[in-house]
Amino acid sequence: MKSLLCCLGREKRKWREIEAEVERLDQSPTWDAPDNALMMQAFEWHVPDDQKHWQRLQSVLPSLRQIGVDRMWIPPGCKAMSPSGNGYDIYDLYDLGEFDQKGCRATKWGTKEELLELTRAAQKIGIGVIWDAVLNHKAAADYTEMFPAVKVDPKDRNVEISSPQEIEAWVGYDFPGRGEKYSSMKYHWHHFSGIDYNAVDNQNAIYKVVAPNKGWATDVSKENGNYDYLMFADLDYSNPEVRQDVMKWGEWIGKELPLSGMRLDAVKHYSFSFQKQFVDHMRRTHGPNWFVVAEFWRGAPGELLDYLQKMDHKVALFDAPLVYRFSNFSRTEGADLRKIFDDTLVKYKPQHAVTFVANHDTQPGQSLEAPIASYFKPLAYALILLRSEGYPCIFYGDLYGIKEGVKNPLAPSCGGKLPHLALARKLYAYGMQRDYFDKRSCIGFVRYGNLRHPSGLACVLSNGSASKKRMFVGRKHAGERWTDILEWNGETVMIDDRGYGVFPVSARSVSVWVDAAAEGRDMFGDFYSDIYKH
Ligand code: CA
User: Fold this and answer.
1) d(CA 217, CA 225)
2) For residue range 114-169, what is the model confidence (pLDDT) as tens digits?
């Protein structure tokens, strides 16, 4: 009994300290605090190949800006192997939809002129454009060449499973539609380290190029022994001509288009030391604020943390482990919500984690599919959008739905309320954060606001039955009536004299509680339903 009283006493003291801290922070001079940042992945795998995507994106820029998007990751816009290619099947770094190559002048997304218009319009409205840089490989060579190679074991690429042989493979690139414009570099077999097809005997296998001072890069992921080879013709960054051409391309594209940074695709498959030099070079050329987010796909954070270390923490990384947590939790009855952030990148390196819920690879039917039960999507988005840790990225397919290319088309996720959650981030998710991760199936947290964004919010999530949580939102809110901006719970919560409210949440749901009279509440009506009209 004595120890219980002692414990309660400690708890009370702790709460007094928190209340005092919140009230002290209320007075802190944050009147010029910036709005929260928000990235958007501006495509999904099955966006129609009508060459109108750059135009589509331009038409939605104002509505995206209204819900707080300030960076847009656009799809890889270099010429692909075919007119419908998404660009990960990259043919020519220097063709942004300008030259008649691989069956078309435009890319799947549109022409270079339209791309330029989109990026200029985005810059003007305050949305930085992030270029998706596909630097691991090239596809759809113009001709074949003969060269020596060995087959390697796909499960352990350090193990050779044939003797050296002359193979004929698609590795000759002379870019006949572009000629020498922008770059005179032509690619040949010695610029690559591997390929997956031998035309001599029509065989598919992983072939490693054999020549003096050649081989797989050693500073890549150790998955499958050595994960240098991913697909198509694998670029060899130990070749100085390759390094020079790609560095030059990085300079060129940042001058050609008003970009604010890059996403580096498939970074676990090419030289980390080259990547570091490349990022340094981009910041020397385009300024120190050039943003870089790398895609290192791994379900556990260990290798991601190693990679960040090797990159001197100069880049951000997508938090793939968090997506797998969301996926598993959403499909596990009784999962312990208090542990939702365990073993995620955002837990260990919040300053370097780009948090997300789905992307073009995890969407239904794709190679890294990570299905998230539809009831859980708004919980996942609330957890990335409304908390202080991580830099969130919302997915085009979740915002607008996935209409084509899938057996079952998907409506916009979160019952169409993803824009509400994004707007709640922009207006209310500021200042100190207090967690109430105290119940397995129901967790909550409070944001206390700052001087410029004083409203704050209280969020409650349940993956089980309906529940309630008593939380402290601050004495300054005493007497206010708080309601759920998502309108999934219709109650009104009165804040008591001590600054507490009892916040309900419906079964398997989330509610985001804000003072009904808070500035901006009128924006949650039909105001931005325009977002769905394109
Ligand atoms: Ca590679």
Assistant:
1) 12
2) 999 999 999 999 999 999 999 999 999 999 999 999 999 999 999 999 999 999 99
Cα–Cα distance for residue pair 505/489, rounded to 1 Å: 6
The answer to whether residue 533 is domain-embedded is no
Q: If we measure between CA atoms, which residue out of 142, 211, 210, 136 comes closest to residue 172? A: 142
Q: Of the residues 95, 228, 265, 319, which is catalytic?
A: 265
Claim to verify: residue 339 and residue 354 sit in the same structural domain: yes
Task: Tell me which of 219, 295, 491, 496 is the catalytic residue.
Answer: 295
198 with 162: CB under 8 angstroms?
no
Retrieve residue 422's tokens. 């994004």
Ligand 1 center from residue 192 Cα (angstroms): 9
Task: Work out whether strand 71-73 and strand 500-505 pair parallel, antiparallel, or are unpaired.
Answer: unpaired
Cβ neighbours for 318, distance < 8 A, ≥ 6 positions apart? 293, 294, 295, 296, 297, 354, 356, 359, 393
The yes-or-no answer on residue 223 being catalytic is no
- 4-51 pLDDT, tens digit per residue, is 555 556 666 666 776 776 666 555 556 677 899 999 999 999 999 999
**CA of residue 137 to ligand 1 center, whole Å:** 7
The mean of the pLDDT values for the chain is 94
Question: 355 and 473 share a domain?
Answer: no
The answer to the question of residue 529 being in a domain is no
CA of 144 to the centre of ligand 1 (A): 20
Q: Catalytic residue at 50? A: no
- Output the CA–CA distances (angstroms, integers) from residue 263 to 45, 316, 411, in the order listed: 17, 9, 27
Cβ atoms of 447 and 430 closer than 8 Å? yes
**Listed residues 427, 450, 481: the one ending a domain:** 427
Q: How far apart are CA 159 and CA 281, in angstroms?
A: 35
**Sole residue written with tokens 């010695």:** 190
Pick from 377, 412, 427: which residue ends a domain? Answer: 427
User: Structural domain of residue 113, as residue ranges?
Assistant: 39-135+240-427
Question: Model pTM?
Answer: 0.94
> Which residues contact residue 326 at a Cβ distance below 8 angstroms, ignoring those fewer than 6 apart?
340, 357, 370, 372, 376, 380
- Nearest C-alpha neighbor of 60 from the set 76, 83, 43, 36: 43
pLDDT higher than 80, residue 216: yes
Instruction: Check which CATH number belongs to the domain holding 192 and give it.
Output: 2.40.30.140
Please name the residues in contact with 339: beta carbons below 8 A apart, sequence gap of 6 or more: none
Q: Are residues 399 and 266 in the same domain?
A: yes
Q: Are residues 57 and 102 in the same domain?
A: yes
